[in-house]
């Protein structure tokens, strides 16, 4: 599925209000094409060289977040906790939901889970149940 297909399917072609990128690279570039006008892209892996024109043409904004720094230095750690508490509230209110692949894998089928990521057949985050 292309980015345009994905945007059409899940937003009616409008684009996403907010995109939080945890992959970087070409996924961050695709995020700049998938955000709505005046939308916002946040990335935890935004280093590298990226073309900002698609984001600029949408009057969108971008933030890079180095989430490990507060944990390594203790500087800003309390604020980092506030952000996580806010995110928890959004999740609990049903306003922030991760997109999960409908398949569930166990440790014995972790190779199949990895293959689903490699061949891009995963429809969201992959869950590996280590208890079952």
Short description:
With 132 residues, this protein is of the alpha/beta class. The chain has 6 helices and 5 strands; from the N terminus they run H-E-H-E-H-E-H-H-E-H-E.
Based on helices, strands and strand pairing, what is the structural class?
Answer: alpha/beta
Question: Main β-sheet, in a few words?
Answer: 3 strands, parallel
Helical element count? 6
Oligomer class: single chain
What percent of residues are in strands?
15-25%
Q: Overall 3D geometry?
A: globular
End-to-end C-alpha gap:
31 Å
Helical content (DSSP H or I, runs of 4+): 40-55%
Strand arrangement within the widest β-sheet reads 1-2-3
Cα Rg = 17 Å
Give the overall average pLDDT: 89
What's the total count of β strands? 5
Low-confidence stretches: none
Note the run of SSEs as H and E. HEHEHEHHEHE
